[in-house]
Write a structure and sequence with these properties.
The chain is mostly helical. The protein is built from 4 helices and no strands. It has helices at about 1-30, 30-55, 65-90, 90-105. Helix 1 packs antiparallel against helix 2 and helix 3 crosses helix 4 (about 90-105).
Length: about 110
């Protein structure tokens, strides 16, 4: 349960960062797509907040056999959020790395 809670809290930190970035983008552009990203980040933040609360408040009710599945779900979510954060903050980084590799392979 502790591992799931820690990973969920890391997810929440990433989601708060994403929310702040999306809010800043919305403030500058007023794009409706950005509103969708804000709602998406908010709902995932709510999901993780409820999960952390449930892990601490209802820990005795969870079967030990379920714990590896909870950890797996949160780690998969963490991986997706890390990728989302990377492409949100450094969208040119992925293309730049690909072009650099392609150019070096051509030599």
């Amino acid at each position: 349960m502790d591992v799931s809670s820690i990973v969920a809290m890391v997810n929440m930190a990433i989601l708060i960062a994403l929310f702040a970035v999306y809010a800043n983008i919305y403030r500058k552009t007023r794009s409706t797509f950005t509103i969708g990203l804000i709602v998406f980040a908010s709902m995932l933040l709510l999901h993780n907040g409820i999960a952390v609360y449930a892990y601490f408040a209802m820990a005795p009710l969870y079967s030990e056999a379920l714990l590896p599945y909870f950890v797996g779900i949160h780690i998969a979510e963490l991986a997706g959020l890390i990728v989302l954060l990377e492409v949100t903050l450094w969208p040119e980084g992925i293309r730049t790395r690909t072009r650099t590799r392609t150019a070096s392979n051509a030599l």
